[in-house]
Amino acid sequence: MAMSAVATLLFLLVASPVAFAANHVVGGDGGWTQSGDYTTWAAGETFNVGDTLEFNYGGSHGVDVISKDDYDNCNTANAIESHSDGKTTIKLSKSGPMYFTCPAFGHCQGGMKLAINVQDSSTPSTPSTPTTPSTPATTPSTPSDSPATPTTPSVGNTPTKSTPTTPNGATGVLGNMNKFVVGVSVVLGALFAFMC
């Protein structure tokens, strides 16, 4: 009986993270085509280790996994992986940047390429909070006959601007849900093991 409890606990621990991995359909409903805007599409997604990218495309297209240099230069001669089956699924197995393009002549130069940054699945996907620049308080001065001398703000007081990032809603919730499910699985597995 104790062996079945251990087996159940191990199954829950292994299966929980996999159950919450996201599948990203590249380009959304439009798929992997020459008319897609993949920079904008990728900006609206959060990619985590364990997620998958699904490329759906016609016979005149393909998917090459390439290096950053080859991405920047639209070079498909050194592809790390090449796919041409019309529906390619690529598992995101490590964190860091990844680069993809269509190997058909001229398609990369026309914008059919994708750059993503894969986050470690243990990294929380919370949006950053924008900072509001503070305005120094000013006191009214009395008018004088001398002209005002312009002042230049020092570098340390220059306000910085931050752009908030909004994670894919499902990914943000599932990222936290994943940790919750694993935690509950551990507690339930331990309770089950002690009861048996």
How would you describe what is shown here?
The protein is elongated and about 65 Å long. The chain contains four helices and eight strands, in the order αβαβββαββββα. Helix content is 29%, strand content 18%. A five-stranded mixed sheet has the order 2-8-7-4-5. Strands 1-3-6 form a three-stranded mixed sheet, with no helix packed on it. The model is unreliable at 126-144 and 146-176 (pLDDT under 50). It has helices at residues 2-19, 38-43, 68-73, 169-195, and strands at 23-25, 47-48, 52-56, 63-66, 81-83, 87-91, 96-101, 113-119. The chain has 196 residues and is an alpha/beta fold.
Short descriptors:
alpha/beta, 196 residues, five-stranded mixed sheet, elongated, 4 helices
Architecture blueprint of SSEs:
Blueprint: H1 2-19, E1 23-25, H2 38-43, E2 47-48, E3 52-56, E4 63-66, H3 68-73, E5 81-83, E6 87-91, E7 96-101, E8 113-119, H4 169-195
Parallel strand pairs: 1-3, 2-8
Antiparallel strand pairs: 3-6, 4-5, 4-7, 7-8
Helix pairs in contact: 1-4
In angstroms, what separates the terminal alpha carbons? 6 Å
Order of helices and strands: HEHEEEHEEEEH
Give the uncertain stretches in residue-range form.
Answer: 126-144, 146-176
| Extended strand count | 8
Helix content: 25-40%
Average pLDDT for all residues: 73
Biggest pleated sheet: 5 strands, mixed
Kindly report the oligomeric state of this protein.
single chain
Strand content: 15-25%
Radius of gyration (CA) equals 25 Å
Q: Helix count?
A: 4
Mass-distribution shape? elongated
Give the spatial strand order of the biggest sheet: 2-8-7-4-5
Structural class: alpha/beta
